[in-house]
Amino acid sequence: MDKERKNEAYPYSSGGWGSLKAVAKILSQEKVTLKDSTVLLRQNKPDGFMCVSCSWAKPADPHTFEFCESGAKATAWDTTAKRVTHDFFAVHPVSELLRWHDHDLEEAGRLTEPLRYDAATDRYVPVSWQAAFDEIGRELNGMDPDRVVFYTSGRASLETSYMLQLYARMYGTNNLPDSSNMCHESTSVGLKEAIGVGVGTIMLDDFEKTDLMFFFGQNVGTNSPRMLHPLQDARKRGVPIVTFNPLREPGLISFTNPQSPVQMLSPTETQISTQYHQVKTGGDTAAILGLCKVVIAADDAAVAAGGPRVLDDTFIREHTLGFEDFADFARQAEWTDIERVSGLSRADIERAADEYIKANAVIIHYGMGLTQHRMGVQNVRMLCNFLLLRGNIGKPGAGPSPVRGHSNVQGQRTVGITEKPELAPLDKLAQQFSFEPPRKKGMNIVEAFEAMVEGEVSAVLNLGGNLVRSVPDRLQTEPAWSRLRLTVNVATKLNRSHLVHGAVSYILPCLSRIEIDRQASGDQAVSMEDSTGCMHGSHGVTEPASTDVRSEPFIVAGIAKATLAGRSTVDWDAWRDDYSRVRAAIAETYPEIFHDFEARMWTPGGFVRPLPARERKWQTKSGKAEFMVPQSLGEDPDMMERQPGALRLMTLRTDSQFNTTIYNLDDRFRGIKGSRMVILMNRADMESHSLQEGDEVTLQTIADDGIQRRVEGLRIVPYDIPPGCIAGYYPECNPLLPLWHYAKESKVPGAKSIPVRVVEQRR
Ligand SMILES: Nc1nc2c(c(=O)[nH]1)N[C@H]1C(S)=C(S)[C@@H](COP(=O)(O)OP(=O)(O)OC[C@H]3O[C@@H](n4cnc5c(=O)[nH]c(N)nc54)[C@H](O)[C@@H]3O)O[C@H]1N2
Ligand SMILES: Nc1nc2c(c(=O)[nH]1)N[C@H]1C(S)=C(S)[C@@H](COP(=O)(O)OP(=O)(O)OC[C@H]3O[C@@H](n4cnc5c(=O)[nH]c(N)nc54)[C@H](O)[C@@H]3O)O[C@H]1N2
Ligand SMILES: [Mo]
């Protein structure tokens, strides 16, 4: 395996000169001039704007360059000199644009004016903002609110998100799904059940206090590169890092700091993972059970010998529930099962558990490799079981660290974007705004698309996002989208979801957070919450893409006013003109979190949201932190594993994309160039399938629902990946992911474990 690794896919450490070259390349591709590129110096600074890429924490004492390769690319993508004007649409009818690649659509540039679809000419044509708001309001008022869906992709600010949820509820629905429905919802459900808060408990300074870190299914080098800095500092202190990931991801192996002159001039790299375990996809519950089994056995032995305890028995006694049942389950688990399902040897699992036993404070970082599975919530609960064994929650240097995706995805939930009525302060909103909010559960993403396929949805309003590309089962869901009566897309750039439009369809171009937001009361700021629960202010620094783009709060206020007319107690115009009024309303709804919001939003490093679990107060059903007994070791009990030729497909991201936004076709870290239509496969599986490097295959989903799901033209790349597991890219492989293949408790699509087989091959 090691030999294969050196030869094939790992030419780079993460960061380093490769990273700087990639930044220079995209700045020139987007024609961002040197003057504009000083924008990067104000990224993630207390006096600047918060990056539009990932949601990693922003330190109080930032580096001069507090941005990473991904962040620089995202900034260049938004500050591009390229523009899409009505001339563009005059030349390109929608039927033609539907044949364009995702990359080319967004690469065309920033949207510049509001547009309405014109069926007679098959073109998007300019429309005034007021005409757009009026028609949208009229359409919505003719619909049953239960048939309308308000989607938020995770970029919108706290202010915009709060306005949107309030508007949707005043209109009459809790249909407020957001991107976390496809992402960390398994965390929101699993952590809440286990420790009483649905978010991670660690903060940046815990990196300075920890003795050991784990990584489960999170690809830091590609998806949250700024986090490599505190990781590197921890490694310098000698903190070990133990990684469980089917792929040997370069960012988890080593890092050359592109901002450190010493490291750039000499070839030294920091080793990131001190142990690397290539677990099978979907094998994490088994692997973590193995870890727990070793720790519990060591404690049993210590008790028998009268030695010091290995478990934190005081913590377990005082703070937890369900330990004995779980411990018995772990004691009785068979190593042969654990080894088979995880694909790891007992000796390797023991090595990892030994590090855990030695450490006093342990952090576990994790991502989509755990959450996007049928058993995604169970994976999260298993992580909590493991942490609870030695009291690794609610003490310095320890805790679960779900690394969030979009820059404000966590914050949107904090201010009421949720389809679950019990998670929104409905009574408070009712009293504050004198209306009766709907109490009926709204639809999450999977439910919204199930309903859409059945013809039970009339309209979708999208605050960002590109749902026809990001949701499962594209061959079913895309046609359903085009049967909608109304689609409204608030967006910065053109994407496929705008083109597969409803009968009445609008594209409403919005400001990027990087741009100066001028309203009647002056320049406006917005705010967001990072992955560690800290709130930050952000104000734009560049000129808007055009004079006819509007801010997200402006657009939400416009639609709300047009829809609700006299039916709302909110002065939407006043909120539009001065966002501090929105913040005052947020502070009134959530005083514990947002008191003195206006002053505190500029706190360097952000202001901290209170989290009871950090103080070992458990807001669970039992009032204790809860252990859980897993239902199944395998990822997916009904996955037809024994079918001949079955392979388990995980869908991945590259450094050259941000979700459905494709910057270019390369995967620099994994050494793949020029195409995203590839499948990474183990050599043993290639042999058993009689496949050679470069062969093209068609994959078909294994399912017994009578629907044929296929993707053709995928080129085979030999790769160091566990046998039986293969990898392809998101969103290209989404037609293979059945809509019903989701985590039971959270409805997060199982994008990391799609059962498929090779049905055609061509040399
Ligand atoms: N450059 C860039 N940055 C991004 C994004 C982007 O698209 N591009 N997207 C943003 C968003 S919205 C999100 S949610 C985050 C996502 O960031 P991550 O959580 O890192 O998500 P992925 O890249 O989808 O996959 C994570 C890792 O899981 C591993 N994996 C797959 N299956 C399994 C498994 O069964 N077990 C284990 N242990 N590991 C597994 C994969 O090999 C991969 O390394 O990134 C955010 N940041
Ligand atoms: N198979 C598979 N499917 C997946 C995943 C996977 O790993 N595998 N990951 C899932 C995850 S984690 C996520 S988060 C979802 C993401 O799914 P989405 O939220 O649907 O997609 P994005 O690609 O993040 O949205 C991109 C679009 O947002 C718009 N946009 C960008 N910036 C702004 C802004 O500031 N304001 C507004 N209004 N619009 C803006 C642009 O027009 C751009 O085209 O996909 C999910 N789908
Ligand atoms: Mo995400």
Strand order of the largest sheet: 5-4-17-16-15-6
Distinct bound molecules: ligand MGD, molybdenum atom
Outline, from the CA principal axes?
Answer: globular
Q: Give the end-to-end Cα distance, rounded to a whole number of Å.
A: 25 Å
Total beta strand runs: 30
CATH architecture group name of the largest domain: 3-Layer(aba) Sandwich
The count of domains is 4
Which structural class best describes the helix and strand composition?
alpha/beta
**Number of helical stretches of at least 4 residues:** 33
Helix content: 25-40%
- Quaternary class: single chain
Biggest beta sheet summary? 6 strands, mixed
Instruction: List segments where confidence is low: pLDDT < 50 over at least 5 consecutive residues.
Output: 1-12
Query: What is the CATH class designation of the largest domain?
Result: Alpha Beta
- Percent of residues in beta strands? 15-25%
Radius of gyration: 25 Å
- The pLDDT mean sits at 93
CATH topology term of the largest domain? Rossmann fold
Protein name: FdhF/YdeP family oxidoreductase
Organism: Paraburkholderia rhynchosiae
Task: Describe this protein with a few key phrases.
763 residues, alpha/beta, Rossmann fold, Dimethylsulfoxide Reductase, domain 2, 4 domains, 6-stranded mixed sheet, 6-stranded mixed beta barrel, 33 helices, globular, disordered N terminus, binds ligand MGD, binds molybdenum atom, FdhF/YdeP family oxidoreductase
